[in-house]
Amino acid sequence: MLEHLKAWARSLRRDVYAIYLASRDPRTPWYAKALALAVAAYALSPVDLIPDFIPVLGYLDELILLPLAIMLVIRLIGPQRMAEHRSAAAIALDQPASKSGAIIVIAIWVVLATLAAWAIYRIVT
């Protein structure tokens, strides 16, 4: 069962990246592109519609809403185009991750946290 869940999570990750690739394809209709970009941005974003610290409801968007949105986008894109983008996504995800990209994201979060702390300090004093 655990292996089945891991395989499902990998295929979901691949599909999210394939949706992103499809959103950049000129053959994809504009409405599918708009929804694909929104779903991919939400899936890859650390910000949730319902925060995860809220019991039960916190994981509702990841478990129900996100897979339903992904299925809708896949249906709008079409099976042939989606198969092309799934194979490209699988190849891209097999390559090692960019360390410089991770460093940039971490640096942005550190700067934002520092600015927030500074703003709170200015308000308090």
Question: What is this structure, in a nutshell?
Answer:
With 125 residues, this protein is an all-alpha fold.
Order of helices and strands: HHHHH
Radius of gyration: 18 Å
What are the low-pLDDT stretches, counting only 5+ consecutive residues below 50?
none
The coarse silhouette is globular
Q: Bin the helical content.
A: over 70%
Number of helices: 5
Report the span from N to C terminus. Answer: 55 Å
Topology summary:
Elements: H1 2-23, H2 30-44, H3 60-77, H4 79-94, H5 99-124
Helix pairs in contact: 1-2, 1-3, 1-4, 2-3
Could you characterize what this model shows?
The protein is mostly helical and 125 residues long. Helix content is 78%, strand content 0%. It has 2 domains: 2-94, no CATH class; 98-125. Helix 1 crosses helix 2. It has helices spanning 2-23, 30-44, 60-77, 79-94, 99-124. The protein has 5 helices and no strands.
